[in-house]
Structures are given as structure tokens and as C-alpha cells.
């Protein structure tokens, strides 16, 4: 083999790159779940406000169009 230790160096380089990618998400399962629930609650509040705004707009505008 004429490659010498190139294969070993490439393997180490690939492991180092993979390690950097794994550190992107460093939350535990319970932390991720808590964040997901928090975001879901915010979205529910936004949807409720939007529905209230729609109901307000359709309630006032619908009667005067006749």
C-alpha cells in the first residue's frame, strides 16, 4: 500500500467533522419537549386572537352589507 496513514488521517478528520455536527442540538429530551410545548401554546394564543379578530370583522361587516 502506497497510501501510508492517509486513510487513518481521513477517518480522524471525518470523525471531527461529524462531532461538530452533533453538537448543534445540545438539549435533552425534556428540554426539547418543554420548548415545543411553549411554542405550541404561543401558536394557540395567536390562532385564538386571529379567530376573535375574524369574528369581530365578520360580525360587524356582515349585518351592514344587506
Automatic annotation (TrEMBL):
Residues 1-66 are annotated as: Disordered. Residues 1-32 form the Small EDRK-rich factor-like N-terminal domain. Residues 1-13, 32-56 have a biased composition (Basic and acidic residues). Residues 15-27 have a biased composition (Low complexity). This is Small EDRK-rich factor-like N-terminal domain-containing protein.
